[in-house]
Each structure stands twice: as structure tokens, then as C-alpha cells.
Amino acid sequence: MNARAEKWMHVRSEGLYCAPANCYIDPHAAVERAIITHGHADHARSGHGSVFATPETLAIMRTRYSDISVGGGVPLHYGQRQDLGNGVILWLAPAGHILGSAQAVLEYDGQRVVISGDFKRHPDPTCKPFEIVPCDVFITEATFALPVFQHPPLEEEIHKLIRSMEIFPERSHLVGVYALGKCQRIMLALRSAGYSHPFYVHGALKKLIELYETFGFDFGPWQPVSEISAKERDMLRGKIILCPPSALADRWSRRMPDPLPSMASGWMQIRARVRQRRAEMALIVSDHADWDGLIETALATGAPNVWITHGRVEALQYVLEQHGVNAKALNLIGRDEEAD
Ligand SMILES: [Zn+2]
Ligand SMILES: [Zn+2]
Fold it and tell me: Alpha-carbon distance 101 to 286, whole Å?
């Protein structure tokens, strides 16, 4: 019952490998040719020779690493076909995960393999929605592949934050967010909910907010917290301060007036993770598909074969097999689950 694609798609120590194209997908070591699904650090490592990715992902990589020379990056717009040689065609489809995130579609020997990268099905104003691409083999993540993981609508979680600012106008509201994707998604969602004050941001978030602005996103007024003197800090009461998750627990946050720490992550459904982050308020905001999303997506591709890269592999494998899908675990290493 093996897929024919096993003859040309392999797992090597560097990561998932397409042999006839001599090309890796999201390798965790520097390689000659890499397809990069999106800019998160556990997928987009530095030091590759050529990189096939969306223009947005290349821009993110250039912002984070200085060694992606312009010559080494091959920008591919969604749907644009690229001949990788030896009869392999590559094109990218939206993954709905973060700005520029893509599924890698590889066609060879009459077969189509889709590597989803990280993806989600919930709406996100910072990126194009996930597109179903019918295929023979669907390669999926399984970060939140347990029935307990059901992600609420973003608006509900944003409403919690806004309610809290009404109830505790004397407290500065710290929101822990990852710099790439989560930060910008929360900012736009707060604007849609009518929040009109400037955002105050930790310095570590500045570069990527500015990069999104070059792609046309309008976050309204925002300002680095570092520009606010100790004397003026009282103005932060009842306002939103965005910071990286690590800053919630360190001295930086204690300089804010009466801080109320919250954390935006898919893991906030788990109490122990909330405590671990020292968050008083949990905002369940995930950039990954939840349990239903993973199953629906894998089935919607119509793929008779599903390969699962990492995460809670067994539960997903079991359910897909119940649906007659031939599902197997790839056990890829080097994916950072925390950084959703
Ligand atoms: Zn990611
Ligand atoms: Zn990832």
C-alpha cells in the first residue's frame, strides 16, 4: 500500500527531500537548494544556496538573516510554475498560516505531492486563506492534533482583551505575541474591534511590523515603549503593550504600570502552559489548524496517502485511517512547536 511518491520523496537527516530535483523542503541544515514554506525560524534556516519561496517569505528571511543574497532567492508568486529540472515542477499555494506562507506543490512522474508546511483554516487578515489542492500525497503537520484542541474565533479572544481593559483601566495590558505573524494578526484584529489608541511595542517586534507595513498593511499608530520616558509611563495604563512571550516574565514587564500579562497562543488552552508563561489572561489564538481543521483539510485534498511530519501524530493517523486514508508518520525533527 505504499505510495509511488516514496520513490522520489524521502526523509533525510536534513529534512524532507525531493530526489529528482535535488531539493529540500524546509531543511533544518544549510543545503544547496531549498523550498521554504514560510518565514518562521524552524522552517526558514539561513545559509542555503538557492531558496524557492514567495516574495514575502524571501523578504522575511532577508529581514532576519543578512546572508540571503538576492541572487540566491527565487521568488515564486502563488500559482507560478517553476521547473526544478529532471521533470519536477514546483508551485506554491496559500497556507493561511502567516504572511507569505505557502504549501509546496511538487509534480513528478504523473503524481502530485502537497507539503502543507504549517497551516490554518481560521481567517487571518494578514495572509491569504488556505487553498485546497487535490493531490496524491498530502504532507501535513499535526501540532494541535488532539480532539481537545478547538480554536475559538479570533473575535472572541480579542473581545476578552477589550473587556479586560474596560474592567481594569488602571492596568497596562501586556500581550505576549510572537514577532512574526501573531503580533500583526492581533494588531489588525484589535483595529477591527475598534481599538484606536496607539499600540506600544517592545523593541524586538519593531522590524517585522515595519516589514509588514512595506507590504501595505496599516496598523494605525504604534510606538516603541522604549521611546516613553519613565515619567510618562502612566499613560500606558489601560493600554495595549505588545511584547515577545519571553518578556512577560522578565524585569522589562515590571517597569510597566500595574501590568496585566496575557499571552496569545494556541497553547493557551492548556492551563499549565498559561502558568508557565506567567499569564493572567489566556488568549487562545493559534496560527495552526485545530483538530477539526486538520482532519477536514486532509480529507478535502482527496489524497489517498497522508504523511504526518510532526506533532500529535498518532491521533491524526488513527482518524484518517478510519476514513480509509493510508496515513503514516514521517517523524521529522527540528520543528519548534512552541513558536506557533
Ligand atoms: Zn510556522
Ligand atoms: Zn513550524
Answer: 15
How close is the Cα of 40 to the center of ligand 1, in Å? 5
What confidence tier does 1 reach under pLDDT thresholds 50, 70, 90? very low
Q: What dihedral angle (degrees, nearest 10) is formed by the CA atoms of 158, 163, 164, 166? A: 130
Nearest ligand (C-alpha, residue 140): 2
- Output the pTM of the full model: 0.95
Q: Write down all domains in the chain, each with its CATH number in brackets.
A: 3-148+288-329 (3.60.15.10), 154-283 (3.40.50)
Tell me, in angstroms, the distance from the centre of ligand 1 to residue 25's CA.
Answer: 14
- Ligand 2 geometric centre to CA of 97 (Å): 10
Rg (CA), the chain: 21
The enclosing H or E element of 65 equals none
Per residue in 280-336, pLDDT (tens digit) is 999 999 999 999 999 999 999 999 999 999 889 999 999 999 999 999 999 787 776
Is the Cβ–Cβ distance between 264 and 175 less than 8 Å?
A: yes
Kindly identify the ligand whose nearest atom is closest to the C-alpha of 38: 1
Alpha-carbon span 288 to 130, nearest angstrom: 11
pLDDT single digits (tens) 58-92: 999 999 887 666 568 999 999 999 999 999 999 99
- SS3 state of residue 153: coil
296 CA distance to ligand 1 centroid (A)? 20
